[in-house]
């Protein structure tokens, strides 16, 4: 995309199950799709195990030999590089002490989580990426309310990892999500206040904010100095009934297992009845000359190629971005 | 200069609440389909004659649908595809007694296109299936040629070129049959539409066909295949495209290791001075778990990268000769 904003596309939509996005030729087709839609930079998302050969740093390197080998693989499809990578230390991974189920809310887990961050930091630095995007805390339904002390504990571990990323020339961006134990505007702002602005930023996801009841445009305007990364996507629903507190909210809420039985929450830009003011949000980014990556993400949607093309259409026709 | 006249031939299937369906499932799906083609940079749209009434209903009129295309960066509807793949007692191009009916059908289709910006190609399947037509004699080809001479004269009066798209399973499929057909048809009325995969499957070199019939060529379907028909699959009743015993999927998008040398064709096209539309077609792309959306994006990537380079190389060659 030819624009003053820097646009990237998230690959997570293709890797929807454990074993469906493994063959290199399938990955090449996804990369070519992204490229044909006008994006030359991608965001990766972490995974685990031998099948996550475009997700887990150690497995990527095993597949491609080196950082440059992986970049060569991307460039075969005319994708020039990696903007960022998403990592959730609460998500079980065999590489992280064999599915150890640690939490950033537990100070006793911090040393281990800092160790777990190192392969991501090394990998991202090696491929010339800019941001490690992280889920700062696990789901709200899995733990008691955090309180100010709890939020400070979470801030502590991210400050430590922020020092690591900073030393490697990377940014660290905390990604708010609608299920997280840091949920309200006050809690999110509290977490930002508990972290070092010099090393820790915020990844603002427009759909996650909207579902969680936070206005992304207003929040960005108020905290623009802390926003270092953006995920741009839409939603048709807000969580008006505190469904995020339901046990197993990953399934009961986000897959419609209970509550209002909404089976799909995230939508492409320009979706009918979308709640996100995408033009308003992008205008706010432009007003501030936002220097970070704006990553289009279409996770948990439908056919990834269709969504990539619709997102590209929206950028070209509604936001006036030249391909 | 990069080739800008890329059109897309409408074959898509997309996921709907009622399972995989054409985007014409409803207006919202059709809108999304057009936007996706637009995002990739296609500027022409080809469709089947049997979709025209449905598009008219969905968008108020067929020109209304074309205006929606134009609002999304398209230039126009570029081609209408008309065909009688199965011979019936009413319509069979090799049966002279059915010709009046076929001409009447074409007249109706032309009427449906009134008010459009300027459809260029009236693309026809010259014959029905081989197995329904055989034996294919010189006389058979003459009868078929007579029909398309009539239709060609008719469409020309409406500003459209009748152009013949041959199938590997059609009654006119070999090089000698093609040559005889073009000999029997009037160069003023009947033209050649080059489907790269269909000719390759039939054992005919599409690049050589273009070279030899450049003056009569008015369009292409850029699609690939991985198989030449070596087992007389073309004679499989009732349909060789889906029922051939040795090959379950005949057609592929460009750049997936198929038999067609697209860069060589692109260079030949540039060198020839052809300046018409180039059309991408995906037919049965969903077989084996494929997706039309991804096939379309991958094909456009191939155009933007591999074919653009072949085109640039050909243009440099032309410049150096001047």
What does this structure look like?
The complex is a heterodimer of chains A (323) and B (322). Chain A is 37% helix and 14% strand. Chain A is an alpha/beta fold and 323 residues long. Chain A has a single domain (6-317), classed as Divalent-metal-dependent TIM barrel enzymes (TIM Barrel), CATH 3.20.20. In chain A, helix 2 (57-64) packs across helix 3 and helix 5 (147-167) crosses helix 6. The longest helix of chain A has 21 residues, at 147-167. In chain A, 54% of the residues are buried. By secondary structure, chain B is an alpha/beta fold. Chain B has one domain (6-321): Alpha-Beta Barrel (TIM Barrel). In chain B, 43% of the residues lie in helices and 16% in strands. Chain B has helices spanning 27-40, 52-59, 62-71, 99-112, 130-133, 138-157, 175-184, 196-201, 206-212, 240-243, 262-272, 292-321; strands at residues 6-9, 14-16, 19-21, 44-48, 76-82, 121-124, 161-165, 190-195, 217-222, 224-225, 251-252, 278-281. Chain B is globular. Chain B starts with 5 loop residues before the first strand and ends with a helix. The model of chain B has no long low-confidence stretch (mean pLDDT 96). Chain A: It holds the Pfam family AP_endonuc_2. Chain A: Residues 33-305 form the Xylose isomerase-like TIM barrel domain. Chain A: This is Inosose dehydratase. Chain A: InterPro entries: IolE/XylAMocC-like (IPR050312), Xyl_isomerase-like_sf (IPR036237), Xyl_isomerase-like_TIM-brl (IPR013022). Chain B: Residues 35-286 form the Xylose isomerase-like TIM barrel domain.
Helix percentage of chain A: 25-40%
Overall helicity of chain B:
40-55%
- Counting structural domains of chain B, the number is 1
Specify the number of helices of chain B. Answer: 12
Distance between the termini of chain A: 5 Å
CATH uppermost class of chain A:
Alpha Beta
The overall number of domains of chain A is 1
Low-confidence stretches of chain A: none
Percent in strands of chain A: 5-15%
- CATH overall fold name of chain B: TIM Barrel
Using the CA coordinates, give the radius of gyration of chain A. 18 Å
User: What's the gyration radius of chain B in Å?
Assistant: 19 Å
How many β strands of chain B by DSSP? Answer: 12
CATH superfamily (homologous) name of chain A: Divalent-metal-dependent TIM barrel enzymes
Instruction: Kindly report the greatest chain-chain contact and the residue count on each side.
Output: A-B, 24 and 25 residues
What is the CATH topology classification name of chain A?
TIM Barrel
Largest sheet of chain A, in brief, is: 8 strands, parallel, barrel
Mean pLDDT, all residues of chain B: 96
Number of strands of chain A: 10
């Amino acid at each position: 995309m030819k624009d003053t904003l820097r646009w990237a596309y998230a690959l997570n939509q293709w890797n929807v199950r454990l074993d469906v996005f493994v063959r290199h030729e399938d990955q090449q087709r996804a990369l070519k799709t992204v490229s044909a839609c006008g994006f030359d930079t991608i965001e990766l998302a972490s995974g685990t195990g031998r099948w996550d050969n475009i997700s887990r740093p150690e497995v990527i390197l095993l597949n491609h030999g080196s950082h440059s080998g992986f970049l060569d693989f991307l460039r075969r499809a005319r994708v020039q590089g990696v903007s960022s990578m998403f990592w959730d230390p609460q998500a079980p991974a065999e590489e992280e002490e064999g599915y150890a189920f640690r939490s950033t809310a537990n100070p006793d887990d911090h040393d281990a989580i800092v160790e777990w961050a190192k392969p991501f930091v090394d990998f991202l630095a090696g491929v010339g990426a800019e941001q490690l995007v992280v889920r700062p805390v696990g789901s709200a339904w899995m733990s008691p309310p955090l309180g100010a002390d709890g939020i400070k504990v979470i801030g502590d571990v991210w400050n430590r990892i922020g020092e690591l990323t900073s030393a490697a020339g990377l940014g660290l961006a905390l990604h708010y999500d609608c299920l997280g134990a840091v949920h309200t505007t006050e809690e999110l702002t509290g977490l930002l206040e508990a972290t070092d602005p010099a090393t820790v930023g915020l990844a603002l996801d427009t759909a996650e904010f909207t579902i969680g009841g936070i206005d992304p445009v207003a929040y960005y305007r108020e905290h623009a100095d802390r926003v270092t990364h953006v995920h741009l996507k839409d939603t048709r629903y807000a969580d008006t009934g505190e469904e995020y507190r339901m046990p197993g909210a990953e399934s009961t809420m986000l897959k419609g297992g209970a509550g209002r039985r909404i089976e799909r929450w995230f939508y492409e830009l320009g979706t009918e009845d979308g709640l996100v003011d995408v033009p308003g949000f992008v205008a706010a980014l432009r007003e501030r000359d936002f220097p970070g990556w704006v990553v289009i993400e279409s996770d948990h949607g439908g056919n990834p190629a269709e969504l990539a093309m619709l997102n590209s259409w929206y950028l070209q026709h509604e936001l006036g971005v030249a391909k | 200069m990069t080739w800008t006249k890329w059109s897309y031939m409408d074959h898509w299937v997309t996921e709907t609440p009622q399972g995989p369906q054409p985007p014409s499932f409803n207006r919202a799906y059709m809108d999304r389909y057009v936007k996706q083609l637009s995002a990739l940079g296609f500027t022409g749209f080809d469709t089947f004659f049997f979709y025209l009434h449905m598009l008219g209903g969905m968008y108020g009129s067929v020109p209304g649908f074309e205006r929606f295309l134009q609002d999304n960066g398209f230039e126009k509807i570029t081609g209408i595809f008309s065909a009688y793949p199965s011979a019936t007692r009413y319509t069979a191009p090799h049966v002279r007694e059915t010709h009046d009916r076929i001409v009447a059908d074409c007249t109706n289709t032309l009427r449906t296109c009134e008010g459009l910006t300027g459809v260029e190609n009236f693309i026809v399947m010259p014959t029905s299936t081989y197995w329904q037509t055989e034996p294919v004699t010189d006389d058979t080809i003459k009868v078929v040629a007579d029909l398309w001479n009539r239709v060609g004269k008719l469409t020309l009066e409406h500003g459209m070129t009748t152009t013949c798209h041959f199938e590997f399973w059609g009654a006119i499929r070999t090089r000698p049959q093609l040559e005889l057909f073009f000999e029997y048809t009037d160069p003023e009325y009947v033209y050649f539409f080059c489907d790269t995969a269909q000719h390759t499957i039939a054992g005919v070199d599409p690049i050589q066909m273009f070279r030899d019939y450049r003056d009569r060529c008015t369009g292409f379907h850029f699609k690939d295949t991985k198989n030449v028909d070596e087992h007389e699959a073309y004679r499989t009743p009732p349909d060789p495209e889906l029922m051939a015993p040795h090959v379950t999927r005949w057609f592929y998008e460009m750049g997936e290791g198929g038999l067609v040398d697209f860069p060589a064709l692109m260079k030949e096209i540039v060198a020839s001075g052809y300046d018409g539309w180039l059309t991408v077609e995906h037919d049965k792309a969903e077989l084996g778990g494929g997706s039309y959306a991804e096939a379309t994006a991958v094909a456009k990537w191939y155009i933007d990268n591999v074919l653009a380079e072949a085109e640039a190389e050909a243009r440099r060659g032309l410049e150096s000769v001047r």
